Amino acid sequence: MHEPTFLILTALVDQPRHGYGVIQEVAELSGGRFRLRPGTLYGALDRLTADGLVRVESEEVVDGRLRRYYRLTNEGAQALTEEAERLRRNVDAATRRLARFKSPGWAIG
């Protein structure tokens, strides 16, 4: 799973969000590293919806424009859980190896 997809799914864990809300939440979750553009976000949301990982929760018209709210599905939560576990295992492996790393002139922390 690519990091932007991981962050989009994570942004939808606690509540349904509309597109701009997802963009803001992803920026916050990533510490500002990811600034999703609307075209990128909506393409990803269309793909995630087609894959059954998110669904449209509701729609409303605001200032003459349709606003869709997206919600994480059970399948999306399962995929996110599996990816978080995979990442945790990778971090654990790197941390264990770094703890044994000894190099003259280089120190961690």
UniProtKB/TrEMBL annotation:
Pfam families: PadR. SUPFAM superfamilies: Winged helix' DNA-binding domain (SSF46785). Keywords: Coiled coil. Residues 70-97 form a coiled coil. Residues 8-82 form the Transcription regulator PadR N-terminal domain. Gene3D superfamilies: Winged helix-like DNA-binding domain superfamily/Winged helix DNA-binding domain. InterPro entries: Metal_resp_DNA-bind_regulator, Tscrpt_reg_PadR_N, WH-like_DNA-bd_sf, WH_DNA-bd_sf. PANTHER family: PADR-FAMILY TRANSCRIPTIONAL REGULATOR. This is Transcription regulator PadR N-terminal domain-containing protein.
